[in-house]
Amino acid sequence: MSSAAPHVTGQDHVGPDHLWSVDEHLEDILATVRPLEPIELHLLDAQGCVLVEDITVPVSLPPFDNSSMDGYAVRVADVAGASEEFPAALEVVGDVAAGQGEPLPVGPGQAARIMTGAPLPPGAETVVPVEWTDGGLGEGPVRGMLARSLGPEGATGHVQVYRPAEARAHVRAKGSDVKAGDRALEAGTVLGPPQIALLAAIGRGTVRVRPRPRVVVVSTGSELVQPDTELRTGQIYDSNSFALTAAARDAGAIAYRVGAVADDAETLRSTIEDQLVRADLMVTTGGVSVGAYDVVKEALSHVGDEDEPGSGIDFRKLAMQPGKPQGFGSIGPDHTPLLALPGNPVSSYVSFELFVRPAIRALMGLPDVHRPTIRATLTADKALTSPKGRRQFLRGTYADGEVTPVGGAGSHLVAALAHADALIAVPEDTVSVEPGTEVEVVLLG
Fold first, then answer.
1. Each residue's pLDDT tens digit, 240-294
2. How many CA atoms, within 13 angstroms, populate the side-chain half-sphere of residue 387?
3. Buried b / exposed e across 344-372, counting CB within 10 Å, b at 16+?
4. Reduced to 3 states, what is the DSSP secondary structure of residue 91?
5. How far is CA 206 from the centre of its chain?
6. For residues 399 and 139, what is the distance between their CA atoms, to the nearest angstrom?
7. Residue 154 — very low, low, confident or very high, per pLDDT cuts 50/70/90?
8. Omega into 322 within 30° of 0, i.e. cis?
9. What pLDDT sits at residue 283?
10. What local confidence, expressed as pLDDT, does residue 303 receive?
11. Angle between helices 357-364 and 22-32 (to 10 degrees)
12. Over the stretch 386-433, which tens digit does the pLDDT of each residue have?
């Protein structure tokens, strides 16, 4: 377990019959899950991490004036008035290639072959694209520049230019991207490929970031079997561990999936303890209700003791549908946070979106941990019903300001979930929502 793991304390104990609101449960989680400690990482290892420092540009980008074209570096006066009928004839003094040493100066009546990205040589004021010249071949305009090794005898001796060029045409100015002393990136930036490219371009090989949280997902249930195996009577495939591991990775975490654990409290407790070494956050699914085989509740209800003050999992009932049974707390010597989710696939996924994803984003140190929420017009064949006193989350598809329910309210409807890109949130005090009503929508995509 990393020393950067947060310490989870939880709220004061409340009675077992207390019905938590969605907001209360999330507030408790976010109040106790703290961002991971920053570390220094090499650029590619820092992909997906959150920057904890402002990055100042040490050297201008580009660091020198350079050509944006293959062509000839010349003086403006030497090509003024040039045309195909009356071309400007210039002496070619040599080549200027990207990465080579100090270039030869260009004097009056002279030109230097220059390649894209090569520095503008002293004395040159502009770049003439090779297509505006005869390429040194004396046979009219050319389409491209021959490789130096392939150029015929005399190709570098003289060149004819058929068009004039303004000062600094086709020249990328020093510092035109960023200047030395500019702020390249702000603290709080998530490092994706463009940001890593910028860091490399200004010479940064390492960067200080909050690491991506390591999330371990454990599903429970003796009825669960792995995909690609034969189902026997009473068995189902384990989809939750795959869904939540993928969701954790989508949220920015490094996620590890643990195969389904049978309904045995000691086996589950041992499995979780073994996984703590690689976890900044533990997520279990299944076994948190009131059944005789609700193994997570049995295994973790009394996990804290005198040797681990502050540890323990609080199992709660939430005023929501789906996802009424939930668990939250910490486990192990480093007080690793653990969220215990219900086992029905939709309940599990909705719970992840509402509670686990924000916890992952909080561990990353992001200022905004929530999915975007908007208002949209409900389109449906009939009114939606919702239980009084529960905040219901229905799957839906969103487009152009409208949201349409997908599937029913059942917490087992995985197929409907696969087609949803939004959650329709029906408030606790609403029992019916008519088509055409404006509703709150959580965007998942």
1. 999 999 999 999 999 999 988 888 888 888 999 999 999 999 999 987 765 555 6
2. 12
3. bbbbbbbbbbbbbbbbbbbbbbbeebebe
4. strand
5. 19
6. 60
7. very low
8. yes
9. 97
10. 60
11. 30
12. 999 999 999 999 999 999 999 765 545 678 888 899 999 999 999 999
Amino acid at the residue 163: R
- Residue 407 is encoded by which pair of tokens? 């599937």
Report CA-CA distances (Å) from 54 to 41, 188, 303, 332: 15, 9, 42, 35
C-alpha span between 417 and 329 (Å, rounded): 28
Look at residue 147 and tell me whether its pLDDT is greater than 50: yes
Instruction: Assess contact for 381 and 427: CB atoms under 8 A.
Output: no
* Tokens of residue 357, six digits: 């994803």
For the sheet with 50-51, list strands across it.
39-42, 206-210, 50-51
Closest to 390 (Cα-Cα) out of 354, 358, 430: 430
- Give 61's strand partners: 178
The secondary structure element, H or E, covering residue 93 is: strand 88-96
Contact 391, 21 (CB under 8 A): yes
CA torsion, ordered 9, 11, 17, 21, to nearest 10 deg: -110
Distance CA 437, CA 189 (A): 37
111, pLDDT greater than 70: yes
Rounded to whole angstroms, the Cα distance separating 363 from 48 reads 13
Q: Are 55 and 184 in contact (CB under 8 A)?
A: yes
Cα(82)–Cα(90) distance, rounded to whole angstroms?
Answer: 11
pLDDT for 2: 43
* 1-43 pLDDT per residue, tens: 344 444 444 445 566 678 999 999 999 999 999 999 999 999 9
Strand-strand pairing, 158-161 and 88-96: antiparallel
Strand partners, 395: 423
3-state secondary structure of 202: coil
